[in-house]
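## Example pair
The file below holds two records. Each record gives the amino-acid sequence first, followed by its C-alpha cell line.
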Amino acid sequence: MILVAEELDPRGLELLREGGHAYRYEPNLWRDPESLRKMLAEATALIVRNRIRVDGALLEGAPRLRVVGRLGTGLDNVDQEALRARNVVLVYAPGANALGVAEYVLAALFHLARNLPRAAQGGDRLALGGFELAGKTLGLVGLGEVGLRVAQRARALGMRVVGYDPLRKPWEAALEGAGVELLPLEAVFSEAHFLSLHAPPTPETRGLVNRRTLARMRPGAYLINTARGELVDHGALYEALREGHLAGAVLDVTHPEPLPEDHPLRGLETCLITPHIAGLTREAQARVGERVVQGVLEVLRAA
C-alpha cells in the first residue's frame, strides 16, 4: 500500500490511480502521529512533503517500507542514512520547482524596486515612481539550479550579477552562460544592491546573514531569502531594517516557520513575509508530483 501522508497535486493522484497499486491519500495525516504510525505498519511506500520527519524512529514502525517519496527538492526532514540502513529507496524531484522559485525572486525584485501596493495608495507621484533594476547589482549566494535561473533572468533585465558558491569554479560554462561573475562571499555582500540567498542549510551557512555580514552590505540594499530560514539571523535583520541600513527584505522562508505573529519583523513595512510559496506554482507542483509518483511506482515494480 502506498501511503500519501501530505498534499499531492492532482496529476500525481491521477498517476497513482493508474499505477496498479493500492494507495491511501491522507493529506492531513501529518497532524495525527498515532494514525500515521498505524498506517505505516502496512505501507510499502510513503509519500511526504516537509512536515513529517522521516527518521529511524519512524522507520522502525514501517517494516514493509520499500521507498519514500519526498514532494519537493529539500531533504531537511529526511534521514538519508536511516533509509540506507534499511535499504529504503529515496525518490525526490531536484530542480522541478526551480523555475517557480526563480520567478518568485524576480517578483520580489520588482516589488522592492517599484512597490506597486504602496503606489496604489496614492501620494506624491514623483516619490512613488521607484527605481529601475537595469544597472543594479544582484548578488547570489548559491549557484545551483535556482541561482543560475535567477541569474539568467536578471541579466536579461540589464542587471550585473555576482555570485558565490564554494562548489563552483570560475571557468565553468554554466556560469558563463548565466552571466555570473564569481566573487568571494564578502565581495558579494558588499557589492550587491540586492542579495538573494539560494544555499542549503549547512553548519557553514546557518546564520550566514548576521550582524557582521549585514554591516558589509551597502546602505539601502535589499535582502531576498527563498532558501532556508536558518541562513538568516532574524534579530540582526530586524535591527538592520529598523535602523535603515537595509531598505527592505522579502522572506519566503523563516526560522521558525511560520514566524510567530508577534515577531518584530512582522511589524516592519519594509519586510514582506510570505508562507514558503516560492516553489508552489501550479506548474511546479504538477512536475514534482508527477516525477515523485513515477519514481515511487518504478521502485515498487522492480521490488
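Second record, same layout:
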Amino acid sequence: MPDGQTPRQLARAANIERIKELALRQLASEGATSLSLRAIARELNLVSSAIYRYYPSRDELITALILDAYADLADALEAAGGTRRSPRRRWADTCDGLRAWAVAQPHRFALVYGSAIPGYAAPADTIAPAARVVRALAAPVVDGAPAPRPGLPRPLRRQLDAVTAELDLPLEQAGTLRLVGAFARLVGLLTLELNGHFVGGFEPADALYAALVEDEADALGL
C-alpha cells in the first residue's frame, strides 16, 4: 500500500484530487466567481453536506487551487531556467516558460494573477508559494547583477527592502525595482493576450512577447 496509507486515506486523497479536477473544469468554463461546492458534489454523486468534509468552504477550495497553481508554475519556471546558460538566455527561457504555462492553462493563470474574486481574501499561506514563482523568474536577474539606480524616494526604498527580504533575494533596491516592473509588464501583456485584447492586432502575440522579454533583459542589464 503506497506510503503505508489505509484504504480510507487513499479514498480520501482520490476524492480530493477529483474535487480539484472538477473545480478546475468549473474555473475553465465559468470562472472562479461561479465556483460551487454543491455543483461539484452533484457530479461526484455526493450529498451536498458530504463535500464539506473535504473543504469546509468555497474559499478553502479556492486556496487549495491557488497553492497548486503557484507550485506548478514555479516548477515550470525553475525547469525552464535551470540549465547552465548566460543570464540573458536563462531569462528568455524562463519568460517563455511563463507564457507557455499561461497559454496552456489560462483559467489557472487568471486564478492567481487575474481580478480579485468577490468575497475571497487569500490567506497568508499563499504568500510563500507566490514568492517562489518570483524567485524563479529572478534567478537570472540575480546572476546578471543590475546596476544601481540612485534617487529613489524613501517610502519606495522601505517597500523595496521589505519585498527583497520577503523574497529572500540577494538584490539591491534597483534590482528589485526592475524585477517587479518586468514581472508586472509580462503579466500585464499575458493578461491582455489571454483576454483577447490583441485580436485583430498582435495575433498571434509570440513576436510581441519575445520583443518585450528582450526589452526587459536590456532594462535588467542582462
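Notes on the second record: The two ends are 50 Å apart (CA to CA). Residues 7-30 form the longest helix (24 residues).
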